[in-house]
Amino acid sequence: MSLEARLEVATREFQKIQKDLSNAIEARQRLDSQLQENEIVQKEFNLLKDDANIYKLIGPVLVKQEKTEAVSNVEKRLEYIRSEIKRVEAQLQDFTQKSELKKTEVIKIQTEYQAKLQAEASTGSK
């Protein structure tokens, strides 16, 4: 494979890794937002009396829900979100490492390609 083709392939791979990294960052931000929202709900539940009325929005309808059930649902959601954050954090580390390796590869190929072009230009001008 020619240097030019290798450079093109490596550049495409680098761009794909960058896109994956960007998507993982967006997912992490969404999860952070969801975590904060659910932590706020959990704090609000702690302030309520045991006999307080709690309603859950299902479609266009508010449905009455027991406090214990609502608290349990929020705790499960928080567990899920925290586990997803750990998973996405691992992805972020993986994509960051891959990105750095691919970036180094692209720079190396670019340097080789530029050296080849300079050598061709200097032999062609003689």
TrEMBL record:
InterPro entries: PFD_beta-like, Prefoldin. GO terms for molecular function: protein-folding chaperone binding; unfolded protein binding. It comes from the Eukaryota. GO terms for cellular component: cytoplasm; prefoldin complex. One of its GO terms (biological process) is chaperone-mediated protein complex assembly. Transmembrane segments: none annotated. Residues 7-44, 71-105 form a coiled coil. Pfam families: Prefoldin_2. Keywords: Chaperone, Coiled coil. Belongs to the prefoldin subunit beta family. This is 6542_t:CDS:1. It comes from Ambispora leptoticha.
